[in-house]
Backbone:
């Protein structure tokens, strides 16, 4: 792994964001809107039910936004190469696919940090969310959501690489499609059996269950958390494998050199 | 004899039932400019894409400085670079930013000093902080050539590098390419449809037709060897009546 080449991908993203207000604003505006919306809803529910919804509901929304930021951070960095038709220039350099993916992930970490800091600032200062109420379980939860966000981000990039620039619209709804299955705001036991079966395949399901258990019953289910970490690692490996296979297919068929054509038929 | 900069053997690319490149073999020596000529669709860009590692050959080998591209992709590409009108640099980055990023990707040492020299060499100083997307096509071509020189490549691939340049700038670029081969040990594979330019620049030319090398030789003597008045006439014959010429 050549870290200079990884840094080049991150630097490119920094140059683009620094020069573009339309790239800066989305880093935090949607997460800020989300926190404000859910913050007031949480405050209202707390006032009418006498239960504290802040850690369960607002905290869960914050964590889900964290996952979305990570995933979209990876795909946004990738889309910059799609939009500027840069694949031919990029992949004719010595960069390895692993270095390119590492660059996308590192870019995502940096850009996501901005959104996450804004989310935490609003949730803590305006709506009184305390991360201390979660205890130590918050650390593996963030790790799993981070890893799953990376995995889905890489898989999404592979999908766009395979299907062409127009496949971009497939990517944006992915978090919304997944969210009902992972039980961000409710226990997965209320889902129909077939949806629960899907939930068991998704690492965030275990995380949100663990968070609710930690807040409500002060119980940490470590085996489930460990299982979700392993599952997230498997997803990352599968996503990387999918991207590499897609890249090799693109090199074999000539799609890299003629990417804007979307297909070679 | 010095090792060949580029050594291509039995290179073939097949898309389904279409043979784009049909088992061609050629080489580029140090300090040599080789012209890859042929009508549209002859297989020139397919060949260049395979040498750049962005298109996998169906069969055959590509070696740069003796290293097999299939086995040592990253090392080989660190010594190779290219410029083509169909591969402009990202238009939303400035000239300096693009050169900086590609310098990092190619592992260039003393990046600032090197970029300054390239900006001067290609007369791009005044566009240093200009986004590439707002440059004229000729200026973008010069930025692309500066990027192609960023790693001082051993093998430089130029796909119609002067296609969008005015005659004056095109001549300056030819001088830069000539200096590149004269001063270092680099070799150049050059495609162009400007036969006067090819005659002026290339030490050797390869005529490609339907994926095969039809003719090879010195651009100054090759037309006469085949009973043609000049290179352009030979080109037209290759494009229209390739069967009238013997396949190598």
Residues:
């Amino acid at each position: 792994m050549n870290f200079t080449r990884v840094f080049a991908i991150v630097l490119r993203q920094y140059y683009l964001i620094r020069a573009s207000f339309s790239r800066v604003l989305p880093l935090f505006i949607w997460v800020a809107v989300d926190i404000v919306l859910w913050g007031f809803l949480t405050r209202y529910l707390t006032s009418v039910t006498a239960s504290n919804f802040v850690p369960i509901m607002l905290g869960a929304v914050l964590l889900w936004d964290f996952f979305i930021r990570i995933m979209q951070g990876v795909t946004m960095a990738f889309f910059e190469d799609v939009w500027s038709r840069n694949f031919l220039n990029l992949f004719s350099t010595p960069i390895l696919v692993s270095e390119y993916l590492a660059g996308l992930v590192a870019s995502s970490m940096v850009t996501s940090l901005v959104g996450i800091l804004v989310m935490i600032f609003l949730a803590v200062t305006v709506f009184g969310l305390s991360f201390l109420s979660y205890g130590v379980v918050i650390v593996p939860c963030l790790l799993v959501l981070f890893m799953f966000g990376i995995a889905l981000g890489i898989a999404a990039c592979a999908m766009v690489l395979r299907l062409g620039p127009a496949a971009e619209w497939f990517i944006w709804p992915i978090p919304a499609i997944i969210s009902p299955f992972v039980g961000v705001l409710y226990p997965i036991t209320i889902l129909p059996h077939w949806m629960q079966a899907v939930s068991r395949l998704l690492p965030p399901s275990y995380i949100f269950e663990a968070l609710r258990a930690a807040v409500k019953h002060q119980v940490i289910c470590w085996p489930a958390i460990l299982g979700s970490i392993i599952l997230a690692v498997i997803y990352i490996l599968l996503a990387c494998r999918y991207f590499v296979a897609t890249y090799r297919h693109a090199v074999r068929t000539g799609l890299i050199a003629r990417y804007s054509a979307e297909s070679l038929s | 004899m010095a090792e060949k900069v580029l050594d291509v053997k039995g290179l073939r690319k097949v898309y389904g039932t279409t043979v784009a490149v049909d088992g061609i073999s050629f080489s580029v020596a140090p300090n040599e400019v080789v012209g890859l000529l042929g009508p549209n669709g002859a297989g020139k860009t397919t060949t260049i894409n395979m040498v750049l590692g962005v298109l996998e050959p169906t069969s055959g080998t590509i070696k740069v400085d003796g290293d097999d591209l299939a086995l040592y992709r990253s090392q080989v590409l660190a010594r190779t670079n290219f410029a083509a009108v169909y591969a402009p640099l990202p238009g939303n980055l400035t000239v300096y930013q693009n050169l900086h990023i590609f310098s990092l990707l190619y592992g260039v040492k003393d990046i600032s000093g090197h970029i300054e020299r390239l900006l001067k060499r290609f007369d791009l100083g005044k566009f240093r902080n200009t986004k590439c997307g707002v440059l004229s096509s000729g200026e973008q071509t010069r930025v692309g050539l500066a990027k192609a020189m960023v790693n001082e490549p051993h093998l430089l691939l130029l796909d119609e590098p002067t296609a969008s340049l005015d005659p004056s700038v095109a001549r300056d670029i030819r001088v830069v390419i000539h200096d590149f081969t004269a001063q270092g040990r680099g070799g150049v594979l050059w495609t162009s449809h400007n036969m006067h330019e090819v005659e002026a620049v290339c030490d050797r030319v390869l005529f490609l037709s339907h994926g095969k090398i039809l003719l090879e030789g010195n651009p100054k003597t090759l037309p006469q060897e085949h009973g043609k008045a000049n290179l352009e006439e030979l080109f037209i014959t290759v494009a229209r009546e390739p069967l009238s010429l013997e396949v190598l």
